[in-house]
Amino acid sequence: MFSIPLLKREMKSNKMIFMIFIYILTIYTLSVVGLFNPKSVNAFDAIIKTMPGLMKAFGFVAGGTTLVGYIATDLFGMIMIMFPMIFSIVLANKLIARYVDRGSMAYLLATPNKRVKIALTQALCLWINIAILITYATVAIIIASALMHPGKLDIGKLILMSIVVYFLHVAISGVCFFASCISNDTKRSFTIGAGIPVLFYLIQMLANMGGNLANLKYFTILSLFNTTDIIGGKSQVLPIIILILVAIVLYGSGIYIFSKRDLSV
Question: S-S: 229 plus which of 28, 107, 154, 234, CB 3.0-4.6 Å?
């Protein structure tokens, strides 16, 4: 089903871009956790309450005085959405469309591996990289919190947030991978693969403002990741199932089209 040699090669060749995002997440994680102070959080909540619509648009909601609430707002409200999203856009574009654009896909197809096997291997590479990225950020948060604020982090809720955000990014990467599979050049792949996730984010910003715009949440999969619901103990089974189904449809459709289409165009 998968080509292990190809997987190893892709993991190695994309190591540099992966390390760049690891570095970025490390900086943000240490900064956010290090700046936590219940008193300053209260002050920040007061600012949010003075401009609720605008602050909600950017994913900032009152998190109370808990460390996990603070992390949910300052890290998972934007950073853990935007950076893994950008990572997925860049990597998905490289895994299929870039090979086709440069004409090097022919070398992969010259091996005993069929198109479906190659595409599945590239998809697996994307899933693994996203998983490592989010797992690293989660572990970094736990370690930093244990060192700077021992005993104050609700690890269970943090892990649940990380699980849901992982499946969110698998679904988002499905959009990027689908675009890569149907494109003959990186420009088209990037336009579609980046355009739709960014549109999702802009729609989510409008939906976050509430009022008549709240119904826009039904037009973006980002609304399936709700840190307030997670912290409040609401079941995340349905959001995860929906995200998995979205990913299956997008990846399945992309791989099917890639396996059938003419790559010489």
Answer: 234
